[in-house]
Amino acid sequence: MSEARKLIESMVAAFNRGDIAFIVGQFADDCPLRETTAPELPYAGTFKGSAGASQFFDKMLGVLQPDRLDIDVWVCEGEHVVAMGSWGGKAPRTGKRFDSMLSLYFRVRGGKVIEFRGHDDTAVTAAALRS
After folding, report:
1. Residue among 112, 108, 131, 123 at smallest CA distance from 40
2. What are the structural domains, with CATH classification, of the chain?
3. Could you say which of 1, 12, 43, 52 has the lowest number of CB atoms within 10 Å?
């Protein structure tokens, strides 16, 4: 197993135990993080570095309470890691549950994430936020 995949697996495990500080610490300071552009999701947009990752998680966890991240497909080549699966949880304000498919792309160099792109079924996630 590649070092890049090991790092991403450790980040997935951290997400599932709620250790966001560990995840944030794995991003290089100049790492671009590109998340959905769906206007209904308050965490949509582009962020930069560990500070941006922290901002992203603050926004996401401000509206969603995830309880799982399951990866069932790994595609790894050199510094590139694609993790595909699903995540789920609820939106505390509405009490609605979401279970959404996702694909996460990471580029890892020198033990740090230097690029991230997140893609999920935004329609499913956004529906949980609507009253």
Report:
1. 123
2. 3-129 (3.10.450.50)
3. 1
